[in-house]
Structure formats: structure tokens, C-alpha cells
Amino acid sequence: xxxxxxxxxxxxxxxxxxxxxxxxxxxxxxxxxxxxxxxxxxxxxxxxxxxxxxxxxxxxxxxxxxxxxxxxxxxxxxxxxxxxxxxxxx
Length: 90
Description:
Blueprint: E1 7-17, E2 21-26, E3 31-36, H1 38-42, E4 52-58, E5 61-70
């Protein structure tokens, strides 16, 4: 058990950095750098710029965090889905 509980914040991914890190703007307006949590790597959950995420941070270092959840997008899909073309032998 940790001495201090972790703090959770919500934010928006603004930039994708090398080495599986992300620049995130928290709802309060602060910018932090976060890395992907192990469960998200294991389940291959992709995170793109513009995604809403939940970040877990230690109270000792409020400039770094761990990305623990990517919120599902409630927007309707843009455009219509095109069905796949049938396979034709030659």
C-alpha cells in the first residue's frame, strides 16, 4: 500500500510523444506528461490526440502521470460505412 492515495484527473490528449508518452491538458488547464498504464498496453488500447482520458497522479509529482482510462467517444460515426468488396477469382 502506498502512503498517499493517488489522485485522479480527467483531461484531453493534446500531443503524442515518443516512447508511448502523451502530453495531456487537464480540465483545470495544466499540462502534464503521462505514460500508458500496463493494462492499457496489455489490451492494446490505442490513444490518439483529441481523446478524453483519466490520469492517475502521485501527490508528490504533479507534472507526471499514468494514463489509466480512455473514455469512449459519444459522437456519431462520420460518413456512412462502405461494405467490403466481394472476392473475385481471375
